[in-house]
Specification:
heterotrimer; A alpha/beta (383); B alpha/beta (181); C alpha/beta (276); A: 383 residues; alpha/beta; Rossmann fold; 2 domains; 8-stranded mixed beta sheet; 5-stranded mixed beta sheet; 22% strand; globular; B: 181 residues; Pyruvate-ferredoxin Oxidoreductase, domain 3; 38% helix
């Protein structure tokens, strides 16, 4: 028996919505380490998980936090951790491990201003490339980007579902503003929430890794005698640390498990894109300025539209390539010094000009007025 | 009919409860079936640095969550007033804690001075209730949220053992401006 | 009960250790201990190990579930396993570099929590797998590949550290003392709470030959001759103990195990919620 959060309309903080969503998604294990601006997730789950027969533990550091999550996942629990930039850096070693061992888990990174301790209480979007390439070696992560309290809820559930669907770590890349913001949120009744549960092996199954699809995942203690290792291994989990073919097959196989399903994973929101002359590509808190900007632009006689990325990785290449064919310009506002910008430029490949717009420090958002000014400047340069 | 939208900024020092006022106000707006976004800004220190909370209440969905020009400004310290007054709209409403804000420049906005610290210390027996006293005054003056919703939001937001005193303090602020200051 | 056969517990008899490596002794002591406790297989065990030669003891050689983690993170991984599956016997194998070098903080905190797992630290006083670099346990003045002028640092007394951190059971033996080591493993596996064993072990390849002990036999003789029982050591001066290996049970006590506390709390929290 678990205590379901009663459905209804609430006024809730983003981090709390994330924590409640984790419980709704079936999360039964949280391990974390206090860090601004992610701490409320740990606090909320410390209170709520025991009520649902789940476990929340504060570990000695972020290295330990993600290790415990990985252990819990192999013991059969849906598990997550939450952190911010400095802790996210420490977690990179085990993000690689989780990827290599096909361990489903959710890592929430609530971005703040870095590098290093930076500005602990201030918002930024500087971890985008770290979420893509933070650990060593070649891999393909799934990274989600919420822009509202409602999405702190719905995308957390999706993060768990994707983690279990593809047996992979999923990074929930939020930011201080969305995480600390309070908004009206609708919690749906549990029967309306789609939950994906882990594929368990049959008694006779012997292959638990790199099967080309998502392999069944045994839990330790269930009698499968499964060896789990972050070293290169074959389909049974046995180490092959010198064989070139096994390594190639494993690393390419793990990447292709995600890449070949990119169409199912990537997700974006189109807004006013029909017949628009300018597209704004944005994500996270920065996207919140876009709707008002489009209204302001309309008053100036400029028809602007928006593509908002709800998944950053795999990168929604097709959506942007398609849009690029029909517009005069693409503007990429970010609270960093150009990260997604280069990715947009790469996929647009000269089809239309791509302009960056960047602002960092003090948690100051890019305002609709600033975005409008950039659009006007961009348009005048093109015309 | 153009949708109604009100931008509120509550400012003070860390520990004065500016963020809590924003949270109660936002929750009340949800109870009034409005769209609402509340954000905050504070320093890394737990106490004493500048703190502010912003609430946007609207009949339609809200995009940009931060307040740029506010319709209502609540200032609970002189520094907070000096810092934020420029962002108050010309025809806006300004509420200050009279005991903390000595110097209010001449402005076109309507100004309400509430001796919130004094009321808190004498009637509510603790300075910590300054914020709900200001909230009571704000609710009465602006009607941005209903009195019932504000009270319900207080009950659902503050620690159990302080609900009664917070409700009383809210009433004191509400009554004070009602008596025609 | 069936007669002990090491094959029953191993995936294969091909193990990757150097000739004369102390890991073979540790494996044999551990599996015998398990057998003597009545376990015919390792189904009720989960093994976690990090990086280094000792981490290869269970993974993947034991016929069991094993999680071979990143360097130093075996104990926090074991924490997640044990909390979710408290009825399993969770055992961590690791070397001195893994457990009191890179993973030291996790070892201390698991002890402090009284996490009910068994940690077996095979202390060969060197980073063996990488070819013989100085470890936090390397004796003072010993020459290694990274201390060509002799080790300038003092080694850790890991067992004392674990006693101070609050373990229910802590013991140190050497690979010379096989009966005592096996006995200690049995006590550790039946301890309700955190149990720690430090097995001083020989690495003839990366340590022995550099410090003038040319064969595994010479290293075992060193363990035999320099060992002092802990009761006797308590009456000796620091000066008398220089270069000695203190052996025996350091502590054996009862304290509430972590999973018990956690699950009692969950029960209360869940019941309170249902009642309200």
């Amino acid at each position: 028996m678990t205590k379901q959060f009663p459905p209804g309309t609430y006024f809730m903080q983003g981090n709390q919505a994330c924590a409640e969503a984790a419980i709704a998604a079936g999360c039964r294990f949280f391990a974390g380490y206090p860090i601004t601006p992610a701490t409320e997730i740990a606090e909320h789950l410390a209170n709520r998980l025991p009520q649902t027969h789940g476990i929340a533990i504060q570990m000695e550091d972020e290295l330990a936090a993600l290790s415990a999550v990985i252990g819990a996942s192999w013991a059969g629990a849906k598990a997550m951790t939450a952190t911010s930039g400095p802790g996210f850096s420490l977690m990179q070693e085990n993000i690689g491990y989780a990827f290599m061992t096909e361990t489903p888990c959710v890592i929430a990174d609530i971005q703040r201003a870095g590098p290093s301790t930076g500005q602990a209480t201030k918002c930024a979007q500087g971890d985008v490339m770290q979420s893509r390439w933070g650990t060593h070696g070649d891999y393909t992560p799934i990274v989600l980007s919420p822009n509202s309290v409602q999405e702190m809820y719905s995308l957390t559930i999706r993060a768990f579902n994707l983690a279990e669907t593809y047996r992979t770590p999923v990074i929930f890349l939020a930011d201080e503003i969305v995480a600390h913001m309070r908004e009206r949120i609708i919690i749906p009744p549990s029967h309306e929430i789609r939950i994906v549960n882990r594929k368990k092996p049959r008694k006779t199954d012997k292959t638990f890794f790199n099967t080309g699809k998502t392999p069944p995942m045994p839990s330790v203690g269930d009698g499968f005698n499964v060896p789990v290792t972050g070293s290169t291994h074959n389909k049974h989990g046995h180490r092959y640390t010198a064989d070139s073919v096994v390594h190639r097959q494993l690393v390419e196989g793990l990447a292709s498990k995600i890449n070949k399903n990119a169409n199912q994973i990537t997700n974006h929101e189109d807004y006013n894109t029909e017949n628009c002359e300018i597209i704004i590509v944005s994500y996270g808190c920065t996207s919140r300025a876009v709707y008002e900007t489009i209204e302001l632009a309309k008053k100036k006689g400029i028809n602007a539209g928006s593509i908002r990325l709800k998944t950053l990785w795999p990168f929604p290449e097709k959506a942007i390539q398609t849009a690029a064919k029909n517009v005069k310009m693409i503007l990429v506002p970010e609270m960093n010094l150009r990260q997604i910008f280069y990715e947009v430029e790469r996929v647009v490949h000269g089809a239309t000009p791509v302009l960056p717009m960047n602002k960092i420090g003090g948690g100051e958002m890019i305002t609709p007025e600033e975005l409008l000014a950039e659009i006007i400047r961009g348009v005048s340069n093109i015309d | 009919m153009t949708p109604k939208r009100v931008d509120v900024r509550v400012s003070g020092l860390g520990g004065q409860g500016a963020v809590l006022v924003g949270e109660i106000l936002g929750r009340a707006a949800v109870y009034d079936e409005k769209y609402v976004v509340q954000t905050q800004s504070y320093g890394a220190e737990a106490r004493g640095s500048a703190a502010r909370s912003e609430v946007i209440i609207s009949d339609k969905e809200i995009g940009f969550p931060k307040v740029r020009k506010c319709d209502i400004l609540v200032a609970m310290s002189q520094d907070a007033l000096n810092k934020h007054l420029d962002d108050l709209k010309e025809n806006g409403i300004l509420l200050v804690d009279k005991n903390k804000v000595r110097d209010v420049p001449k402005v076109k906005a309507k100004v309400f001075s509430i001796p919130a610290t004094e009321i808190a210390e004498t009637a509510s027996k603790s300075r910590i209730y300054v914020n709900t006293i200001m909230l009571g005054a704000l609710t009465k003056i602006t009607g941005v949220v209903s009195e019932e919703a504000a009270k319900e939001a207080i009950v659902d937001t503050v620690p159990k053992e302080t609900i009664e005193t917070n409700l009383e303090s809210f009433g004191r602020g509400f009554e004070f401006v009602g008596s025609g200051d | 009960m069936t007669e002990f056969s090491i094959r029953e517990y191993l995936r294969s008899m091909r193990l990757p250790f150097c000739t004369g490596c102390g890991n073979m002794t540790v494996i044999s002591c551990f599996l015998k201990a398990v057998h003597e406790l009545g376990y015919e297989d390792l189904r009720k065990f989960v093994f976690c190990s990090g990086i280094g030669c000792a981490a290869w003891i269970p993974s993947p050689h034991f016929k069991a579930d094993s999680i071979h983690t990143t360097h130093g993170r075996s104990i926090p991984t074991a924490t997640g396993v044990k909390l979710v599956r408290p009825t399993l016997n969770v055992v961590v194998f690791g070397g001195d570099g893994d457990l009191v070098g890179i993973g030291l903080s996790h070892l201390i905190h698991a002890t402090r929590r009284n996490l009910d797992i068994t940690v077996i630290m095979v202390n060969n006083m060197i980073y063996g797998m990488t070819g013989g670099q100085m470890a936090p346990t390397t004796p003072f003045k010993a020459k290694t590949t990274t201390t060509p002028y002799g080790n300038l640092e003092r080694p850790f007394d890991a067992t004392q550290l674990i006693v101070a951190a609050g373990a229910c059971y802590a013991a140190r033996w050497t690979t010379f003392h096989i009966d005592q080591l096996r006995g200690a493993m049995k006590r550790a596996l039946t301890t309700k709470g955190f149990a720690f064993i430090e097995a001083i072990s020989q690495c003839p390849t990366a340590f022995g030959r550099r410090v003038g002990l040319k064969t595994p036999k010479e290293m075992l003789r060193w363990f035999k001759e320099e060992s002092v029982p802990v009761q006797k050591a308590r009456k000796m001066t620091d000066g008398d103990l220089v270069g000695k290996i203190v052996i025996g049970d350091f502590v054996c006590r009862e304290r509430p195990p972590f999973t018990k506390t956690v699950y009692e709390t969950i029960k209360e929290a869940a019941n309170d919620t249902q009642a309200s």
